[in-house]
Amino acid sequence: MTxxxxxxxxAFPNSVEPPRPHKPDGAGxxxxxxxGTNSCRMLIARPNGRQFRVLDSFSKSVQLGLGLESxxxxxxxxxxxxxxxxxxxxxxxxxxxxxxxxxxxxxACRRAxxxxxxxxxxxxxxxxxxxxxxxxxxxxxxxxxxxxxxAPGTEQLLVIDxxxxxxxxxxxxxxxxPRAERARSIMRLHEGFERPNGDARPVARVVDWISVPLxxxxxxxxxxxxxxxxxxxxxxxxxxxxxxxxxxxxxxxxSRDGFQIIGTSGTVTTVAASYLGLRRYDRNKVxxxxxxxxxxxxxxxxxxxxxxxxxxxxxCIGRDRHALIMSGAAILQALLRVWPTDRLSVADRGLRxxxxxxxxxxxxxxxxxxx
Length: 371
Hints:
Helix content: 25-40%
Number of strands: 11
Number of domains: 2
Strand content: 15-25%
Mean pLDDT: 86
Oligomer: single chain
Number of helices: 13
């Protein structure tokens, strides 16, 4: 949206005064930082009606979990890269004067034996206090961020969040929720997957959820010794499917009518960008896009056909993603194989957006979120 020109802009002042030091006014601003296994990402936003408006953002591939699968520890190089990125985040927070924020770390810091030491190092060297959140909260916040993408006729919803170190799946039954209330009932899941006692509001019922400790980085590390590109992809896909056996809806064959899968991750958005042929990524074209399973398979087959060198030079994939796209595609293909569906909804959103929505909802600063 084009910014409005302030009244009197361009007019000559009556007198000339020395410039005053800029004092950031962080009142009303919120920040959310997601430190994952592969990336460090942050959003700074202001509430705007039912949504929020992003004022600043940061995203950097830091590969914090590089080598974690074999050593069980965060390496010195990975920690140094991450601290450098977090320093940039701290500068942005200070520049905007942000007062309300949640800064979280996920799977890599959950699993690493030196994760707690790293948290202390971050606080000491950047002044940022990060919290390691549990897999359930990570799953809940990913679901909350996707609420507005749920189709009106959806009765069974599967949200998949393919991360760097883990993959979260949440199956939600919306069949008992009036259509007009479904998005709001999903937003309320930030309070927890269980319905609070005495809560009579329409509720999205979580049938089951799972956090598989395999993401694009950790799954790739599992099969780093397999040299053949196609064989490695097939092994990764079947291995990931084996990890779903404990997920209650694993063998469910839902009706295609009223069943929706939403995918939120860099893998899903990259596949969508490749399908659209975007040489420069455009969130407005990707977020909310619906792809058929045949279209997704076509993109993945093209990835395999061009091989590692072709993927490395593909502008749709990008330099930060080319080494991890096939492990992510293997996860995505496994999920579509288990639950055959005609379409997948693409979400360019996730933990950061969920963190922002949860903070703003708790503070009552979003219109239409009450009740």
